[in-house]
Amino acid sequence: MANNLVFIVMDSCRFDSYARAKRPNMDRIGAGERRYSYASWTAPSHQSLFMGQLPHQNPRGVFASEIYKKDYLKWIDRFGTGELSFKTFVPEMSLAKVAQGLGYRTVARVSMPILNPFAGFNRFFDDYRLMSNHNDFAGMVEEVEFSPDEPTFYFFNLGETHYPYMLKSAELPIISGLHGVARDLDDIVLRSSENADEPTLFFSMQKLGELHDQQVRCVEHVDEILGYLLEKCPENTHLIVTADHGELFGEGGFFGHGPVMHEKCFEVPFLEGRKP
Predict the structure, then answer these.
(1) 103: region left, alpha or beta (phi > 0 left; psi from -120 to 50 alpha)
(2) What does 151-198 look like in DSSP terms, one character per residue?
(3) What is the pTM of this model?
(4) What's the domain count of the chain?
């Protein structure tokens, strides 16, 4: 029997936030490790994830092709079937397409607007939706249903660990990602002459530390909801929990992620295993 497959991405969650958090449910699934994202922001990183390329271990002294071979072979165990043909990955290079070919129902729930269905990430998903609430892992879990007759591939992109880390405060500015910048850029251009002398806003080191602490608490919140998801998962469910990229909290003068070249922007947690 094929495994149900649940793939969870904690958006922007850096490895040490995961490591500091109390995470009993994640620990039940498997031992977490530090890995590295293929990209420093959501869209390109998810493109790699949807291709079946999970965060890597940054090995040295080997050809990249050997790493790709090793990583792809693991999908046999994850899907729980020896019928997987790797030729089915091409030419689309789509994990969802491969799952469909194996008879899976494919479902995705995403939190980041850049992953909206019109951006093309919904290919080969039977059911793909951008959540209306940025922090609604609980709502995603509430909708989860498994069938005894058809394996399911669930993909979840979680906004809880992304700025503003479930915080609502007048002290926290709205910081747009690429999607928000593109959406609002016309208005920004019109206002640019009026705001030419405005200083660049940046957080104090104290505030950056507080934000990092809050991301840790967000991991703990996700872990609590994960417990409810585990209760709904059949025994033959394989789970993956990771992040699409890390986050900077003042290291090297950086905050956030995106056009940032810093190790902490690429360090992510990774764990997987069968339902405990």
Answers:
(1) left
(2) -EEEEEEE-TTSTTTT---TTSPP---HHHHHHHHHHHHHHTTTTTTP
(3) 0.92
(4) 1
